[in-house]
Amino acid sequence: MSTGVIILVVVVAVVVVLGAAALASRSTRSGRGLKRRFGPEYERAVARHDGDVRAAERELAQRVERHGGLRERALEPEEAERFEARWTAAQEHFVESPKGAVEEADRVLADLARARGFPDGAQYEEQLSALSVHHARHVQGYRHVHRVAHARVSEGADGGGPGTEEMREAMVEGRGLFEELTGPVERRRGGSREKAGEGREYRRGAHGRHLPWGFTGRHAKGS
Q1: 129 contact partners, CB below 8 Å, separation of at least 6
Q2: Domain range spanning residue 51?
Q3: CB 3.0–4.6 Å: which of 84, 103, 140, 179 could bond 149 by disulfide?
Q4: Host H or E run for residue 80
Q5: pLDDT(152) > 70
Q6: What pLDDT band is residue 123 in, cutting at 50, 70 and 90?
Q7: Residue whose C-alpha is closest to residue 139's, from 55, 213, 54, 45
Q8: Which intervals carry biased composition (Basic and acidic residues) (predicted)?
Q9: Is residue 143 part of a domain?
């Protein structure tokens, strides 16, 4: 083998190694970016793919590609008040009808997400996917509410479906997304997210009263 051929083989080998290293580095950076963006949702995706990190990251990257450019619209004050009144009514109805309260909470979240510019609630999976890109910290609450709301009532009697305590937990968990969606629109700056108009400790309803955000076990049990 001539010296020229040997040099060519070495150069090709070096290029291949460097290319592989560059791809690995890019994949690592991409994975870290997805972890930062999705938080707990990243771990849920990995678990759903039975630990296959690459498959999970492909799924999450596809979500970002489909929904990353979505621009949320801010709610008008009157809209926010109507949604707050509906959520408050659902919480207050929980003692009398836990299942009915969770079903209404599911409808409120779907309608609220649509009002903010996300896909229609009739396309639940697509709406959930878009929400996970922009509100990853709280999307699990919506998932929990939706699952409990659509579970058969008879399941609870056998211990295989949601009982009153799980329905209460779903309401509490779902409230996180509700509060985020009724809050100010987030905007990105320098890779981080910030909210305009933060600092409010509570909201007021249509009649100026404080809304009962403290939905606790005591409320759920009616004591």
Answers
A1: 63, 66, 67
A2: 33-67
A3: 103
A4: helix 77-93
A5: yes
A6: very high
A7: 45
A8: 185-204
A9: yes
Same domain, 94 and 37: no
For the chain, the residue count is 223
The answer to whether residues 86 and 124 belong to one domain is yes
Q: Number of folded domains in the chain?
A: 2
Using the structure block, give the residue that is written with the tokens 């209404």: 104
Q: Is 162 helix (H, G, I), strand (E, B) or coil?
A: coil
117 and 169 in a single domain? The answer is yes
pLDDT digits (tens, 9 = 90+) for 11-34: 556 555 555 444 434 444 457 889
Beta bridge partners of residue 195, listed in sequence order: 186
Q: What are the tokens at 108?
A: 């409120």
Residue with tokens 């290029």, as numbered in its chain: 15
C-alpha distance from residue 167 to each of 10, 102, 105 (Å): 65, 7, 11
Residue 6 has pLDDT above 60, yes or no: yes
Domain identity same for 94 and 177: yes
Instruction: Kindly state whether residues 119 and 158 are assigned to the same domain.
Output: yes
Tokens 């985020």 locate to 180
Roughly what angle, to the nearest 10 degrees, separates helices 77-93 and 98-115?
Answer: 170
